[in-house]
Design goal:
three-stranded parallel beta sheet, 6 strands, Mitochondrial_ECH-domain, mitochondrion, mainly alpha, fatty acid metabolism, 2-enoyl-CoA Hydratase, Chain A, domain 1, Enoyl-CoA_hydra_C, three-stranded mixed beta sheet
Length: 169
């Protein structure tokens, strides 16, 4: 599930939001790393924060300790969506439905490769992603998805992670 945030997410709470793949914030939500205000810099939350938002925003949050708004969190990449407070649950459930309607092994493979490739130099990232694309093409759901596209119908996912073996001629 995506993280759902209402109220104030501070320190480790903000770290948790920054660590999530997807996060939906209520429009009234706020985010802060206020440790500096009590003499304890938010060093551990800074790890996830620096990997989620741009450096200027991370330093603003870490050095001032002041909260940012949900809209600022969205603009900086800390959250993926902002919803009206009353619509937070429904918006999150819609996002969940959008993700879970796809093939589980395809999503899993894509997510794993995404996080691997962002740590690599560009050329290595392309090599990794090219090999992943080939492996993805061998999944039953990739073949089903391509067939469904060509036949103009909705795919029927098997959710199998067993590679399809080509038949020898």
């Amino acid at each position: 599930h995506p993280m759902q945030v209402s109220g104030l997410a501070t320190a480790a709470g903000c770290q948790l939001v920054a660590s999530c793949d997807l996060a939906v914030a209520a429009s009234s939500a706020r985010f802060a790393t206020p440790g500096v205000k009590i003499g304890l810099f938010c060093s551990t939350p800074a790890v996830a924060l620096a990997r989620s938002v741009n450096g200027k925003m991370a330093m603003r949050m870490l050095l001032t300790g002041e909260p940012i708004t949900a809209q600022e969190a969205l603009a900086s990449g800390l959250v993926s969506h902002v919803a009206e407070d009353a619509d937070l649950e429904a918006t999150t459930e819609t996002l969940v439905a959008m993700v879970t309607r796809h093939s589980r092994p395809v999503v899993s493979m894509g997510k794993q490769t995404f996080y691997q490739q962002v740590k690599l130099p560009r050329d290595e990232a392309y090599r990794l992603c090219e090999s992943t694309m080939l492996a993805n093409l061998r999944l039953p759901d990739a073949q089903e998805g391509i067939a469904a596209f060509l036949e103009k119908r909705q795919p029927n996912w098997s959710h199998s992670d067993k590679e399809v073996v080509e038949k020898q001629k």
